[in-house]
Amino acid sequence: MVMTTLPDNGLIHLDSPYSVPETVDRVLKQLSERGLTLFARIDHSGGAAAVGLEMPPTELLIFGSAKAGTPLMLAAPTLAIDLPLKALTWQDKDGKVRLSFNSAEYLTNRHNIPNDLQKNIAGLPSILEAALK
Question: Which of 27, 30, 49, 88 suits 37 as a labelling partner, its CA being 20 to 30 A distant?
């Protein structure tokens, strides 16, 4: 899987060979197959268009699992600001489509997630990488 080099700010950026809508659809399929709940699908570019502004295709998915997330938030309550999990599909100024998300390491360090619960968020990269195959 190709990962784009962007600033090191806790985000992982995967290059997608698909359009933004197709990438989002493929991610949704992976989430559904794994029994994860989709809480919201936010079309930022659609919102921009609705007020007469232009923005490259950009969609945010907010998803998760109460079974995995609740123990994390009980152990590290501030994690609730970053949960449910999010995946951003966006097109850059050169037309390249990317799929971006917070790394498990970033969330672990930011919220001091106990070692025994890190597995609850460690699988996100494999889910999103599977969507791009």
Answer: 49
> Could you tell me the pLDDT band of residue 26, with boundaries at 50, 70 and 90?
very high
User: What domains are defined for the chain?
Assistant: 11-131 (3.30.310.70)
Given 3-state DSSP classes, what are the helix, strand and coil percentages for the chain, each rounded to the nearest 5?
45, 25, 30
Phi, psi of 56 (to 5 degrees): -60, 155
Structure tokens at 24: 């989002």
Q: Are 83 and 63 contacting, i.e. CB atoms less than 8 angstroms apart?
A: no
Angle between helices 124-131 and 20-33 (to 10 degrees): 130
CB distance 59 to 20 below 8 Å = yes
Structure tokens at 95: 């037309």
